[in-house]
Amino acid sequence: MSTCPACSAPLQGDWKFCLSCGAPLPQAAPAAIRPDTADAGRTINLLAVIAFALGVIGGPIAAIFGHIAVRQIRTSGERGLVLARVAIVLGYVWLVVWIAAIAWIISFSVR
């Protein structure tokens, strides 16, 4: 049981004011505002960020880095799973683009 900080009267439940002296009582911050939420201590996986950057600039190797980042995130509990998955998709898209470009160049250089 807690006590009033102004008059030391016993308090019950989640009162907003002391019944003895009428002083307002401090309230706990809602869970959405508290800094001790679940993601506060988790860091973002650096390999996921690198994979995403490679996927944005056009590197098919982003898919490989993304797969490695997903494995690391699942074992370590770090953040960045969405970045890693987006990097995987971008890496495969760029791989298809690169293969199509090389096939197009080869097909026109043969003639």
From TrEMBL:
InterPro entries xref list: DUF4190 (IPR025241), Zinc_ribbon_dom (IPR026870)
Segments forming domain Zinc-ribbon: 4-25
Keywords: Membrane, Transmembrane, Transmembrane helix
Bilayer-crossing regions: 44-70, 82-106
Domain DUF4190: 48-100
Keyword Membrane: yes
Pfam families according to UniProt: DUF4190, Zn_Ribbon_1
Entry protein name: DUF4190 domain-containing protein
